[in-house]
Design a protein that fits this description.
This protein has 2 domains: about 160 residues, NAD(P)-binding Rossmann-like Domain (Rossmann fold, 3-Layer(aba) Sandwich); about 90 residues, ProC C-terminal domain-like (ProC C-terminal domain-like fold), CATH 1.10.3730.10. It has 12 helices and 8 strands. β2, α2 and β3 form a beta-alpha-beta unit. The radius of gyration is 22 Å and the shape is elongated.
C-alpha cells in the first residue's frame, strides 16, 4: 500500500473509477484520498461510498497532498490552476487526465518546474485489463515513476508513451473495447439466429473471445497464423472467413479506428 496522500480535483465518473480501482486493490487507504468537486452532492456521495475525505474547497483539498490528480473538463483546467498553483509544492506530482491538455499547456498554466504526469486512463478498470497511457516530464524522478506505476496498477496495465501517440491511444486503446463490444454483439446475435439461447450464445462467444486473446498472448503469433491452422480445405471456417473478407471487414475495422483518430485530432 502506498502511504502517499492523493487529492482528486474533480469527482466525476472517471475519477470515481480510479478511486474505486486504487481502493479495491489496496493501493491507497481511503483516509489518504481527498476529493473536491464543485457539486457538494458528488463529494458527499464519494465520501459515503468509499470512505474518502471530502474537502470543502480546492485549497484545503491540496494541503499536504503528495499527488494532485486533475479530473475536470479540459475547458476548466486553467481556472483550477489559477486557484491552486500558488499553494502547490514543486515536489507535488501533478497528474492530469484531461483529454487534449498537453504537457506544454500544463507547464504554461501551472509553471514549468512542476512534476507533470499526463494519463489517459484504462476504460475497463473494474476487470483489471486494459492499458493506461502515461507520459511524464523531466522533473519526474525514478522514485516518482514507481509511485505512478503502483497507482496505475490498480487500474490495469500501464504503457509509457511519447506524447505524440496520445491521440492515437485514445482512438485505438481507449475506444478499443467499443469496437470489440460491437463485434461481440453481432457474434452473439449470429449464435441466436443459429438456434442457441442468448445465454448459451453469449457463453460460447465470450469463451472464444477469451481463448483467442490468450492464444495470441501465449504464442506471440499473428492472428492469421492461427486462422491458417484452423481452416481446412473446402471446410466450414474458410467459407465463413470468405464472407468477412468479401465484406471488407478488415478494412472497415481499420477505417473505424482511423475515423476515431481523426475525430480525436479535431477535438484537440
Amino acid at each position: 500500500m502506498v502511504n502517499n496522500k492523493i487529492t482528486f480535483i474533480g469527482g466525476g465518473n472517471m475519477a470515481e473509477g480510479i478511486i474505486r480501482g486504487i481502493i479495491s486493490n489496496g493501493i491507497f487507504d481511503p483516509k489518504n484520498i481527498t476529493v473536491f468537486d464543485v457539486l457538494s452532492e458528488r463529494k458527499e456521495y464519494l465520501n459515503s461510498t468509499y470512505g474518502i475525505v471530502e474537502a470543502k474547497d480546492d485549497l484545503s483539498a491540496i494541503k499536504g497532498a503528495d499527488i494532485v490528480l486533475i479530473a475536470v473538463r479540459p475547458q476548466d483546467i486553467v481556472k483550477v490552476a489559477q486557484n491552486i498553483k500558488k499553494n502547490l509544492s514543486e515536489s507535488t506530482i501533478i497528474i492530469s487526465i484531461c483529454a487534449g491538455i498537453k504537457m506544454e499547456k500544463l507547464g504554461n498554466i501551472f509553471g514549468e518546474n512542476h512534476k507533470f504526469v499526463r494519463i489517459m486512463p484504462n476504460t475497463m478498470i473494474d476487470v483489471q485489463h486494459g492499458y493506461s497511457a502515461v507520459n511524464i516530464n523531466e522533473q519526474v524522478k525514478s522514485s516518482d515513476k514507481e509511485i505512478i506505476e503502483t497507482l496505475l496498477s490498480g487500474l490495469g496495465q500501464t504503457m509509457f508513451l511519447d506524447e505524440d501517440l496520445f491521440n492515437a491511444f485514445t482512438a485505438y486503446g481507449c475506444a478499443g473495447p467499443a469496437y470489440i463490444m460491437y463485434f461481440l454483439a453481432a457474434l452473439i446475435d449470429s449464435g441466436v439466429e443459429s438456434g442457441f439461447s442468448r445465454k448459451d450464445a453469449t457463453a460460447i462467444a465470450l469463451e472464444n473471445l477469451i481463448a483467442s486473446a490468450l492464444t495470441i498472448q501465449k504464442t506471440g503469433k499473428h492472428p492469421y497464423q492461427i486462422t491458417d491452422i484452423m481452416t481446412s480445405p473446402a471446410g466450414i471456417g474458410i467459407a465463413g472467413l470468405h464472407v468477412l473478407s468479401e465484406s471488407g471487414f478488415h478494412g472497415t475495422v481499420m477505417s473505424s479506428v482511423k475515423s476515431a483518430l481523426e475525430r480525436t485530432n479535431e477535438l484537440e
